[in-house]
Amino acid sequence: MAVKLSEKDEIKVNEIVDILKNKNSFLITSHINIDGDGIGSEIALFIGLKKLRKNVEIINQDKLPKMFKFLPYSDKIKIFNEKIKEKNFDVGIIIDCGNIERVGELKDFILNLPFLINIDHHLTNSNFGHINWSNPIFSSTGEMIYFICKKLGQINKKQAICLYTSILYDTYCFTHHLSNFTFDIVKNLLTKGINPEKIAQRIFFEKSIKSVNLFKEALKTFKFYKKLSLCTMEISNKLLKKTRTQEEHTEGFVDFLISIKGVEVGILFKERANGVKVSMRSKGKVDVENIAKKFGGGGHREAAGCFFENKSLKEVEKIILKELQ
Length: 325
Ligand code: AMP
Ligand code: MN
Ligand code: MN
Description:
Elements lengths: L6 H16 L2 E5 L6 H16 L3 E6 L17 E2 L11 E5 L11 H5 L3 E6 L10 E4 L6 H12 L4 H14 L11 H9 L5 H9 L4 H10 L4 E3 L4 E6 L1 H6 L10 H6 L6 E8 L2 E8 L5 H7 L3 E2 L3 E7 L3 H12 L1
Parallel strand pairs: 1-2, 1-4, 2-3, 4-5, 5-6, 8-9
Antiparallel strand pairs: 7-8, 9-10, 10-12, 11-12
Helix pairs in contact: 1-4, 2-4, 2-5, 4-5, 5-6, 5-7
Bound molecules: adenosine monophosphate (AMP) and manganese (II) ion (2 copies).
One manganese (II) ion binds next to helix 2.
């Protein structure tokens, strides 16, 4: 099999696997507004550790979006609460987070654990943790977890479903940010008897009517800035209320913007209770991570995001547009 890590990455994997084999209890977490990459990576690693008979829990700040409920063990995932603060873990494993703030409410708890492992593929990573394995060459943390799981034992079908989900999600159906490993890893996962059509269907082709209704309304805010090759759309709280939807119903909207011919950058502005979340996508000419970074966010060249606290949609749109001009 052609999949071979660089020496540097191989060393990191070995360091991580050593800790996983030698310690007993593990907390696995990922970023706020958990996504397909984070969740697939968490569960695949959870299974790998369970196979070694370790005590392991997945705990996130936010609840699992419904679209991922088909994943094995997804019902075992916990939401952070006061009671969890009384628990002890030897090791905290933080996946798909460019900085520690991204774990949200778990931050203080996790920083108090005796040992932290940081596994990430964002362009900018603040190098937190006792072991930091961060490398943007990977399409997804799913690819990184694949190498770890392989060293923990044979990858089983359930792990393969989760890892395939991670990769499929973060490459948006193999359309961007592919790595040199992607197709070799996928080929290997397919030998585990997973059904790739079914997984793609679950993640990308089961839009709810609620989501479509929201999209219909959101399209009324659609703007095309020809000179900037830019498209934008906005989702106000008023609109969410009117269509009885939540932010998770906006899944795929920003990817629609970037699917338009002649568009280089697509931006979705999402109003939240305490500010505005900006989701950006690029076909590659414009580095959207560079923009997100300026406002405390992060991501990748082709997909990045940031959050503006206590600002209105109009204010944020003005700031971002100015940055793009
Ligand atoms: P999203 O627009 O939320 O789908 O995110 C696109 C990419 O940017 C993902 O890789 C996210 O992890 C990253 N990202 C989004 N928001 C932030 C943020 N506030 N800080 C750092 N990275 C972010
Ligand atoms: Mn992510
Ligand atoms: Mn990711």
